[in-house]
Write a structure and sequence with these properties.
Layout lengths: L20 H21 L11 H8 L11 H14 L19 H13 L10 H18 L6 E5 L2 H17 L2 H9 L4 E7 L5 H8 L7 E4 L9 H13 L2 E9 L11 H11 L2 E5 L24 E5 H4 L7 E5 L2 H8 L33 H35 L4 E7 L2 E6 L9 H21 L5 E5 L2 E7 L7 H26 L2
Parallel strand pairs: 2-3, 2-4, 4-5, 5-6
Antiparallel strand pairs: 1-7, 6-7, 8-9, 9-11, 10-11
Helix pairs in contact: 4-13, 5-13, 6-8, 6-12, 13-15, 14-15
């Protein structure tokens, strides 16, 4: 006990962590006003800005940890301004570089509730309302895409972890219950291997590494000319592996690849997985919400046959980051993979029969923030019909962009699937196919992309298609309009002209 306090005494001084109610209201109102102005004018600012690291560090402030308190108002103002000034604006109507949706403002307000109430959605006993809302939201997501609503499921940080959960459930299911006790070497499962195309997202490499299989356990199946899995090559690879003593256990389908939005032949893959006794997992982080939309690839319907499925609500369901969702057809298999019940979790003995799942039993996290709340508020405030209509509009805009590029001299449309359109700059005089011209075109398109990103009129990323460097637009944005996509060919041509002039000055070519 400190010398300056006698027994029973307590300093009557507010904690420095506390904020008086009036100050909290004042600062909160100020931040909401600034965000409202930001949403209202987001189309008038650059989609992204050019900067260097030194400039950002100066803006953040290069100094040590403060010893004494600083003014909260000044801190919040500084944070808002520096983050707004130095970064890409994913809600901008021409922000099409990455698969991150524009965040619905009602979801932003839900984040405030989540942080303020600070529920740890691990057990239904401690936070029953939050747990019930997460369970309901999981059912709604399953209903939206036509997946069984009695599935296992939970919210995660994003697609990587949602996919990892599916991978780990598949590993345990195919390796057997002894895996937990004896590990891969002792459970008798043999040398496990998984199948996906080269177009599959890198989450699969991470999962194989984390799960102790190693990346050599991934069999990269050939893709066809549309970047979709070649089923004949898949069957051949499975047969060869069985003959060589390997244990095929997992087939991974893509419901929208990152580079081109390609959708694997999911219905046929589901049937093949059943014949071969493989776990069928679908990475639907990007494309799964489009399954019920008009104009979407019909192959998406095969995701409804998956044993497990990953979705990212912060992609095409317009939730603020983070909002991944893992779905597993068998709730029992899902729980068995992660269920540990130590003595200090006395409530674990209750189980989750008849109530919301105890989510620490369904994933690697014990402490879990209330990610489901923002998705719950968005789905309620928008409704199923408007969710699907927004996706349909993005599909239409991506097709319209492809058409506009085809009609623009000096540009070459390459691929179009889901809401991804890829194209490249292709001057008439370089359409020879000679190696030196292909090398130049790659350099020209790289420089063009950099200039577009730095210019701020739009934000794109890149893809490499059949060895060719391409520009890539992925439209998962409820603010995008046809006028925005029709402006892009002109923006690309102007940037390409500047890029060509810079390359000529630098190389003389």
């Amino acid at each position: 006990m400190p010398d300056d306090l006698t027994a029973g005494e307590e300093k009557d001084v507010a904690s420095p962590f506390e904020l008086p109610a009036e100050d909290f209201r004042r600062l909160g109102h100020r931040m909401v006003d600034r965000l409202a102005d930001y949403f209202e004018t987001i189309g008038d600012i650059p989609a992204a800005a050019a900067y260097d690291v030194a400039e950002v560090r100066r803006a953040v402030g290069e100094r040590g940890l403060p010893e004494d308190p600083e003014d909260p108002a000044a801190i919040l103002d500084h944070a808002f301004e520096v983050i707004r000034a130095y970064g890409r604006h994913s809600g901008h109507p021409r922000s099409w570089g990455y698969i991150i949706g524009s965040a619905a403002p009602v979801g932003v307000l839900a984040e405030l509730i989540m942080a303020g109430l600070n529920n740890n959605v691990a057990s239904g006993i401690a936070y029953p309302a939050a747990s019930e809302i997460e369970a309901q939201t999981v059912r709604w997501i399953a209903e939206l895409i036509g997946y069984p609503t009695d599935c296992g499921g939970l919210f995660t940080s994003g697609g990587n972890v949602a996919n990892l959960i599916g991978f780990l459930v598949a590993r345990r299911d195919k390796a057997g219950a002894a895996l937990r006790r004896d590990g891969l070497l002792g459970c008798g499962a043999g040398r496990l291997c998984a199948y996906a195309t080269e177009e599959a997202h890198t989450w699969l490499d991470k999962a194989a590494d984390i799960a102790g299989l190693g990346t050599e356990a991934i069999r990269r199946v050939a893709a066809d000319g549309c970047q979709r899995m070649d089923l004949a090559d898949l069957e051949r690879r499975i047969a060869e592996d069985r003959a060589a003593g390997f244990t095929p256990f997992l087939l991974v389908g893509s419901a929208g690849t990152t580079s081109t939005g390609a959708v694997d032949p999911l219905p046929e893959m589901a049937a093949l997985a059943r014949r071969e006794g493989l776990w069928f997992h679908v990475d639907g982080a990007y494309g799964a919400p489009a399954v019920s939309a008009r104009g979407a690839p019909p192959e998406l319907a095969g995701l409804r046959e998956a044993d497990s499925l990953a979705i990212d609500g912060h992609k095409w369901l317009f939730a603020p980051l983070e909002a991944g969702i893992a779905l597993v057809r068998s709730r029992d298999k899902h729980r068995d993979t992660f269920d540990f019940s130590p003595s200090y979790y006395d409530f674990a003995r209750v189980g989750d029969a008849g109530r919301a799942p105890y989510y620490y039993n369904y994933g690697p996290q014990n402490s879990r923030c209330f990610r489901a709340l923002k998705m719950w508020t968005i789905l309620r405030s928008v409704g199923r019909r408007h969710c699907i209509e927004a996706i349909e509009d993005n599909l239409r805009l991506a097709r319209r962009l492809y058409q506009a590029v085809e009609e623009t001299q000096g540009l070459q449309a390459l691929t179009q699937s889901l809401s991804v359109t890829t194209f490249r700059v292709l001057p008439q005089e370089r359409q020879t196919g000679r190696p030196e011209d292909e090398s130049y075109l790659d350099a020209l398109n790289r420089r063009t992309l950099t200039l577009i990103q730095e210019g701020g009129e739009a934000y794109l990323s890149n893809a490499v298609i059949d060895g060719r460097y391409a520009l890539r637009a992925c439209i998962t944005n409820f603010r995008s309009r046809e006028a925005d996509v029709l402006a892009l060919p002109g923006i690309a041509r102007a940037a390409a002209a500047r890029a060509a002039a810079e390359l000529e000055r630098e190389t003389g070519t």
